[in-house]
Design goal:
CATH topology of the domain at 15-197 and 233-259 and 300-314: Rossmann fold
CATH architecture of the domain at 15-197 and 233-259 and 300-314: 3-Layer(aba) Sandwich
CATH class of the domain at 15-197 and 233-259 and 300-314: Alpha Beta
Oligomer: single chain
Radius of gyration: 19 Å
CATH superfamily of the domain at 15-197 and 233-259 and 300-314: NAD(P)-binding Rossmann-like Domain
Largest sheet: 7 strands, parallel
Length: about 350
């Protein structure tokens, strides 16, 4: 009797769309899907000042792999054809900079909200049967009233980017209720890992810390460095996204993605420096007035709902994950102009 063949991995043989698929999280997802035998259409606008990089998936655009790239905004007319008939849509597109949203609020509104409404309209018409997984953010909670933060915590963003992200998430869920789209949303905490763009200082504190440590520059913390964060490796995020896409009970739901490790910013910086093996030093300075207004203090997400419903929990510890991340940059002969 011949042994039974192992079952195919989840989503194998399906057709998926990944918006923002040339960026950090999106490209890691695309790579995992392609490895599972999934046909993937990548949609990315390559917006200046964002993390999109064609090199993130260029090695996948080869015979034998069904990966296609469309460089376009998600509200461009040609996107309707790209999503037509898609079975799963991962909507990862968006602008993530707090400061950019304050400096140009109308642009943030356009990139994080208006364009997504247009995209949802195209999905409603061209792919009404698709499963849609949208990446939201812990920013929607604002300053925590308690820790860890669960999905029942009030949402009160402290900046324009957070408000637009919350509205975008809620519009996705509304389209699910009104039009029968099978939508779920994942509220991500601080994500790091290979392909995180390091050249842009407004892409999050982890990118800044990693870049400065790789260069041997000092890392400056605002305040006393005691604020706490839970950091999530991108591989864990990709696992959660696929779990949400393959779990019928996820439809119509919002899930926190967090980590059980709660680390101070000083500890995070120190571990990054240790992984880099450079002579960087951590220093603390007073908060700039403009940034202090949007500071949220400490944060840790409660991911028990994702664990119960999706069967998901983070598997990569920060020390292991940051070593993996630093190693990925060294393998690519990283330099300040290479990411």
């Amino acid at each position: 009797m011949q042994p039974e063949s192992p079952p195919p991995p989840p989503l194998a043989g399906t057709r998926c769309v990944v918006t923002g698929g040339l960026g950090f999280i999106g490209s890691n997802l695309v790579r995992e899907l392609a490895g599972r035998g999934v046909g993937v259409t990548v949609i990315d606008a390559m917006v200046p000042q964002h993390g999109g990089d064609r090199e993130n998936v260029s090695d996948l655009e080869v015979p034998g792999l069904d990966v296609k790239v469309l460089v376009a905004r998600i509200d461009a007319p040609e996107v309707a054809d790209a999503v037509a008939g898609a079975e799963v849509i991962f909507n990862v597109a968006g602008q993530v900079s707090h400061l950019a949203s304050i400096e140009d609020p109308l642009r943030d509104l356009d990139l994080n909200l208006r364009s997504h409404v247009a995209f949802l309209e195209m999905v409603r018409v061209a792919a009404p049967g698709a499963i849609v997984v949208q990446t939201s953010t812990r920013q929607v909670y604002g300053r925590p009233q308690y820790l860890p933060v669960d999905e029942q915590h009030p949402t009160s963003p402290v900046d324009i980017n957070g408000i637009d992200k919350l509205a975008c998430e809620q519009l996705h869920l509304l389209y699910g209720r009104m039009h029968g789209l099978r939508v779920s949303a994942l509220r991500l905490t601080n994500v790091y890992g290979p392909r995180l763009h390091l050249d842009r200082p407004d892409q999050g504190f982890l990118a800044v810390f990693i870049r400065r440590a790789l260069l041997g520059d000092d890392i400056t913390l605002f305040g006393d460095g005691s604020q706490r964060r839970d950091c999530l490796h991108v591989d864990d995020v990709v696992d959660a996204m696929i779990a949400a896409a393959t779990c019928p009970e996820a439809v119509g739901e919002v899930f926190n993605l967090g980590h059980h490790e709660s680390l101070t910013l000083a500890d995070i910086a120190g571990r990054i420096i240790a992984a880099c093996g450079t002579r960087s030093v951590v220093t603390c300075v007073p908060w700039p007035e403009d940034l202090e207004k949007i500071d949220i203090g400490s944060f840790q997400g409660d991911y028990s709902k994702a664990s119960d419903v999706l069967g998901w929990k983070p598997s990569v510890g920060f020390t292991e994950g940051i070593r993996n991340t630093i190693g990925s940059y060294r393998e690519r002969a990283w330099s300040p102009s290479s990411t």
